[in-house]
Specification:
The chain is α+β, with helices and mostly antiparallel strands and 301 residues long. It has twelve helices and 14 strands. It folds into three domains: 47 residues, Uridine Diphospho-n-acetylenolpyruvylglucosamine Reductase, domain 2; 110 residues, Uridine Diphospho-n-acetylenolpyruvylglucosamine Reductase, domain 3 (2-Layer Sandwich), CATH 3.30.465.10; 123 residues, CO dehydrogenase flavoprotein, C-terminal domain (Enolase-like, domain 1, 2-Layer Sandwich), CATH 3.30.390.50. Bound molecules: flavin-adenine dinucleotide.
Length: 301
Amino acid sequence: MKAAPFAYVRPSSLSDAVAELAATEGEGKVIAGGQSLTPVLAMRLARPETLIDITAVAGLDQIVDADGVVEIGATVRQRRVERDPVCSMVPLLRAAMPWVGHREIRSRGTVCGSVAHADPAAELPAVASCVDAGVVIAGPGGSRSVLAREFFTGAMMTALGQDEIVSAVRFPVAAPGEGFGFAEIARRHGDFALAGVAARVRLDGETVDAVLTGFGISDRPVTRAVSDELITVVRAGGSESGRMADDLREALSTVADEMVDTDGDAHASRDYRRRLFRTLAARELSKAYHRARSDIDEVNE
Ligand SMILES: Cc1cc2nc3c(=O)[nH]c(=O)nc-3n(C[C@H](O)[C@H](O)[C@H](O)COP(=O)(O)OP(=O)(O)OC[C@H]3O[C@@H](n4cnc5c(N)ncnc54)[C@H](O)[C@@H]3O)c2cc1C
């Protein structure tokens, strides 16, 4: 099929892009990499009257490292993030990137576009939620910032107003003593995940801060603190990595099962997703813990 007719504008400033979008009164759509929107248009699942192409907007193609944050602008392609040395300061982002579709998709698709699109099975919204990233939003009234954990409000639904544009996502740089884990199960590489997990563990003296974010398991990324479960396993002496994953599988059984609230579909039942998620969560939390430990050991050497 072909897309229904639409008008096309390509503004060169963010204020012009916002003005163009606001002028459509809800009948316009931003287009960035086009990797999700183009199929939607071709299948006529959406019929926007105007496309606002933001790829010529000055300043949105920046990756900026400042104040403990890596800020990724709205037209930065996923493939660039995969290779840019600055982005290695956000290890979870780098770990997730190869799982996003295929290299050809990542060559066009943007990080901010993936966040704005808010597919519940997408990797980058989960990463943003797990590391507590901030979503920077430009609108007619100026700029505002929303925590990723509050930005996703449902399947393909966000806190974005119809006249607002995501101008950047701000990912906190990993602190010393932080470790991460990321994995998913999909039917084929490049498919959206049946279930996936991002894990972050921060060790600081006696303090343990552990977080899991699941994706493909609900209508949005689901984040839960799991410090108590991790501490219980560590105190019981289960820090040898193979055993730790087994012990965590038991310790996480309630929380992991609660996080999976999607209905079953043609690809996987709810019960299967629960089992997948629990196993992935235990393995990746264990890896994150051991990476955090070795990070501390390196700092102390
Ligand atoms: C074959 C295939 C496989 C894929 N596999 C995966 C996968 O495994 N995991 C995954 O996460 N994604 C996958 N994708 C999607 C891909 O990652 C997209 O690039 C991404 O979801 C959207 O980014 P984009 O820049 O292409 O956005 P676009 O397609 O341009 O836009 C997507 C939506 O977001 C809105 N939007 C985009 N940018 C902004 C902005 N700055 N402000 C406000 N709204 C905005 C658009 O209006 C539109 O509604 C796949 C795509 C294809 C075609």
